[in-house]
Amino acid sequence: MALAIRLARGGAKKRPYYRIVVADSRSRRDGKFIEKIGSYNPMLAKDDENRVQIDLDRVKEWMGKGAKPSDRVARFLEAAGAVEKTVRNNPNKGKPGQKALELIEEKKAKAEAAAEAAKEAEEAAKAAAAAPAEEAPAEEASEEAAAE
Question: Could you give the percent of the chain with pLDDT greater than 70?
């Protein structure tokens, strides 16, 4: 029989209260269990000492018999110092894949090209604005020379 140390929900609607129980892994969440070894009240403040209560001697005994804690119960046991901390998250899982990286690079290239085009257009506009100002005095000078 596979044993699990897990949470069994109790309490009213929107007022949860959990028992930490040892149960057959095939039994229902709130169904039959072998032994109650603690409790968890998420309604209490995180620093409250009554939020999580576990009988660590019974936990060690059941784990010696082959019971495996659920993820949440394992976190409680890690906080209590009964179990060594394990790494749960895979940091590489959240990284973008090959195709996404290619798309990001394409977007960067397009943005750079658009920025360069805008910069060139702005420089051309400045040159165009400066050119008629320079040509106007030259035209006036040529008109004055022709008038004399």
Answer: 88
pLDDT tens sequence across 114-144: 999 999 988 888 888 876 555 555 555 565 5
Q: What is the biggest distance separating any 2 CA atoms in the chain, rounded to whole angstroms?
A: 118
CA dist 97 and 103 (Å) reads 10
Strands in the chain per DSSP E: 3-12, 15-24, 35-40, 52-54, 68-69
Which structure tokens are listed for 11? 């309490």
Report, in angstroms and rounded to the nearest whole number, the Rg of the chain calculated over CA atoms: 37
Count CB neighbours of 76 within 10 A.
22
CATH number, domain 3-86: 3.30.1320.10
Q: Is the pTM above the cut of 0.85?
A: no
